[in-house]
Write a structure and sequence with these properties.
The protein is an alpha/beta fold and 290 residues long. The chain is 42% helix and 13% strand. It has a nine-stranded mixed β-sheet, with helices on both faces. β4, α8 and β5 form a beta-alpha-beta unit. The mean pLDDT is 93.
Length: 290
């Protein structure tokens, strides 16, 4: 890990400590823009004097310097990750998925912790989202979606939750496919195999929070070249909120299963595309890869 990546981690990650106060994404990008104005002196040590010179307040400057000084904490955390077989991709890493940077821009996660085969990130990815309690026809759609994603040499992106997520994952497994599972909590307690890549944002060992769940949903939509919605509740729930955010930001095209529900009709009116099981054998043809 080079010094720039280490600095990004020190500034933006809890590093497993919920009491640590890293910069938010917005704060980090504002700071980056200020530091860039110093070129060609960008390699100067970041101290309070430099930060004050680019417009940071005394309190902001002291906080940033404190974060950057915790190199021992970072080294300990990286050693812990290595012992567990976890990897780390910062948005400065060449291996970081460039598609995420294109669609999420400055909102792309500063760091992705990985557990499994990161080559899956560079395959054609298709996301499947949906409710935890599925109606029979919607369950069949989620299962067939997983199977067809695998059969068409794509990789399924899922959230690993009960319902649509796991149904699609089981479908992909039946067809010998691979899955990327984006977690809202930590790697601990999950079982891994050669066909699964787990991802966590910020830290690999922090518990579930509502904010981590929301951020996880956004990442699922942004990773996929398309997102299939197996089922949604209208106006509530994580699936609805994630689809709304995707339709607003245009992270990936949204295809919603035609189940005749009010939720599906509402999503069509907002730009989602109807899809049924007969279309699933052709979904890879819908993907546009720059």
């Amino acid at each position: 890990m080079n010094p720039r990546e280490a600095g990004l981690l020190l500034l933006t990650s809890h590093l497993g400590d919920p009491e640590r106060s890293p910069l938010t994404g917005s704060q980090y990008w504002k700071l980056s823009k200020k530091i860039l104005t110093l070129e060609p002196e960008a390699d100067r040590e970041v101290d309070c004097g430099l930060l004050l010179s680019v417009g940071c307040s005394q309190q902001e400057a002291e906080h940033i310097v404190l974060l950057l000084s915790q190199e021992e904490l970072l080294e300990t955390y990286l050693r812990k990750a290595a012992r567990c077989g976890y990897g780390c991709l910062t948005r400065l890493s060449p291996e970081y998925p460039q598609h995420l940077l294109r669609v999420m821009k400055t909102h792309a996660p500063p760091v992705l912790w990985t557990w499994g085969n990161t080559d899956f990130l560079h395959n054609p990815l298709i996301s499947v989202v949906g409710s935890r309690d599925l109606r029979p026809a919607n369950r069949e759609f989620a299962s067939l979606a997983g199977q067809e994603i695998a059969r068409q040499s794509c990789v399924l992106v899922s959230g690993g939750a009960r319902g649509a997520d796991r149904t699609a994952q089981e479908g992909a497994a039946v067809s010998g496919g691979a899955c990327i599972v984006v977690l809202p909590d930590c790697f601990l307690g999950h079982q891994n195999d050669q066909k699964t890549l787990y991802l966590c944002q910020d830290s690999f060992d922090l518990p579930f929070t509502a904010q981590r769940a929301l951020s996880r949903n956004h990442l699922i939509h942004a990773l996929g070249r398309m997102t299939l919605v197996a089922q949604s509740n209208q106006g509530r729930g994580g699936t609805w909120a994630g689809v709304q955010a995707n339709l607003h930001h245009h992270w990936s095209p949204v295809y919603c299963y035609q189940d005749g529900s009010a939720a599906a009709q509402a999503l069509y009116s907002q730009g989602a595309i109807p899809i049924d099981c007969r279309m699933l054998p052709h979904i890879s043809e819908f993907i546009s890869i720059p």
